[in-house]
Amino acid sequence: MNVESLISDLAFILLLGAVVTVLFKWLKQPVVLGYIVAGFLASPHFTYLPSVTTVENIEFWAQIGIVVLLFSLGVEFSFKKLVNSGGSAVVTALVIVTGMMAAGFITGRILHFNTINSLFLGGMLSMSSTTIIIKAFTDMGLRQQKFASLVLAVLIVEDLFAVVMMVVLSSIAINSSVEGGEMLWSVGKLMFFLIIWFLVGVYLLPSILNHIRRYLNSETLLIVSMGLCLGMAVFSVYCGFSLALGAFVMGSILAGTSYAEQIEHVVTPVKDLFGAVFFISVGMMVQPGILAQYWLPILILSLVVIIGMIIFGTFGMLITGQSIRVAVRSGFSLTQIGEFAFIIASLGMSLHVLEPQLYPIVVAVSVITTFTTPYFIKLSAPASEFVERHLPQRLHFLIERYNNEGQKEQASGSPWAALLKRHLWRTFMYSVVLIAISVVSAYYIRPWLTDIGGKWGPVLAFIVEITLMSPFIIALISPVRVKEGDDAVSYNIPRIVLMIFRCVIALGFVVHAVASVFSATAGLLLGVAIVVMIILLLYRQLTRHMSRIEEKFFDNLNERELRRSGKNNRVVSDLHLAYMTVGAGCPFAGERLMDSNLRKTYGVNVVNVQRGYQNIPIPDGRQRIYPGDVLGVIGTDEQITRLLPVAEADKAAADSGDPGQMTLGSILLSFNSPLIGKTPSTASLRDRYDVLVVAVNRGGEFIDSNPNLVFAPGDIVWLAGNKNNISRLK
């Protein structure tokens, strides 16, 4: 690889990208489209400008861009958000992905693409753009509305589905066929990989980061997070997956830590840089000749995306019990394809299974649907009103009845269902951990100890494996705690059946470990004996040990929420120490603590202020509060719950005036000016026009603004403020 050409190509596309994206910002268009246009201008297909010397150079940077982009998406994703998104988001995302996959595949076959290309096309058309939708919602001030929060939850789930889809499509492409067994094996491996690293990562990483907290400034946090990202990406490849998957997994693990916002902040410049290179590389694939030749497929696919997303998005929301208005507005908001379409297309190109014309076709569809997204979001409100007015009365009644019944069922819940869910989750999670121990023992521990210990190596490996398994076997067979309100008596028989089922599974793991060293018969006999011995001798010690592990795991999993609510920082009786970030819309931002009346209004005490990397313990009343400050607050659950939404008021709700509108201007006072004889304060220029008197030019001499200054005829008054307000004064 020629270093000089590598740097020169990077410099050329970044300079061109800077010019084009500034132009797109001026036109108030999505920056992503600017990158794609810049890529086209830098490509050999556009002959009026110099092009990059080597396309491989850009592909190299683009691969780094994919890794960093998916790491950032993972940090925004978090498994906690997935759990909190609820069934509505999961079901809706499943309906959309399944429906659009089918629509894309059928459309691809109609357009005479082969099976593999049609499958990839379906995958590319099934994912909406998180970046574009968030940008559109923010610009329109819709982030706080119910349908917008549901759409964002759907996008979170779609990101996870996209990762699964990449693995499945890779497997299909490599094997050149759609085999059910192979596909299930690939998905199973993926889920195993995700769960293991989720469990290990959540248990270890937050503890490690908290241990080295005092050394983590912005520089070291960037190095640590990017090191973890790239390390997991390499490990993912070692396990047979892609670099992008490993980066996404690491990002989602770090998303649950209290450092997530800081990581997001320090990684953003890196993401923006390499993400820009990736989207520029996408634009370089655009071929005008192919676009002109395939204008009809582009138009058809654009219509399939828009109509399909509206239909499947609306239907998915309706079947999960959402109202017609919310469902229709959600469907209209999802009418585009975005980042993952390009990533899936890049995957297909790297595997040499996509036809060359498919990539620029998908890029063109993305550009069209991105341009139309803001208009469809604006159209969603009148469209929902139109549907409500013209929907047959009987159908309207049935939908409302279905929604009401679903909400009642969700509110009431079933104690037996909740108990069954806890049993199944415990069985599933600990079984996965035990499988992981068996795999590590078979592929790493046993061969290593066999080389060292000879014939005694397998026996030593067996002892190590059983030792590692013991805590999790105890956890697997331990009774599931019954929550208050559960009618446990009526569930005795089902609980006994579930208990026996879990004991059989635990026994199966022990039997497998014994049989791997001895015989199957010995495995069965010794397995029972070992399980009984573990229960009799080590039950209490291992139960306490697993309780501590579980408590640590759930504390780390909920670290961000616990830090905000203070539920893990009990001071005395009902008092807690909570941490909350002051939002741009906070009503007391900019005020002194003594003027904020936090103690009088909410009953809380501010004991700490974290401003960047500056820590202010026990701040006095003169200390001002600024947006972005992290307040350490002591109060009761009720007091903290009241204060949280006020302190963390979303910045989207705040006034987001353009600072570029502020300017310095002047006015000449005539003899009949109403300002003659007045001072800056009595003229009330600040209150009436939102302008500030800076200075007065009187006879060539500048006089600074002061309370004793009196305006006189011929004065040139220099003002700071909005240029429109200064023009009104003139």
How would you describe what is shown here?
With 730 residues, this protein is α+β, with helices and mostly antiparallel strands. It folds into four domains: 3-384, Na+/H+ antiporter like fold (Up-down Bundle); 415-557, no CATH class; 569-653, Alpha-Beta Plaits, CATH 3.30.70; 659-729, Regulator of K+ conductance, C-terminal domain (Alpha-Beta Plaits, 2-Layer Sandwich). The chain is 68% helix and 7% strand. It has 28 helices and eight strands. Strands 1-4-2-3 form a four-stranded antiparallel β-sheet. A hairpin with a 2-residue loop joins β2 and β3. α15 (324-333) packs antiparallel against α17 (358-390). The longest helix has 39 residues, at 415-453. It is globular and about 110 Å long.
Structural class: alpha+beta
Q: Level of helix content?
A: 55-70%
Residues in β-strands, percent: 5-15%
Across the major sheet, the strand order is: 1-4-2-3
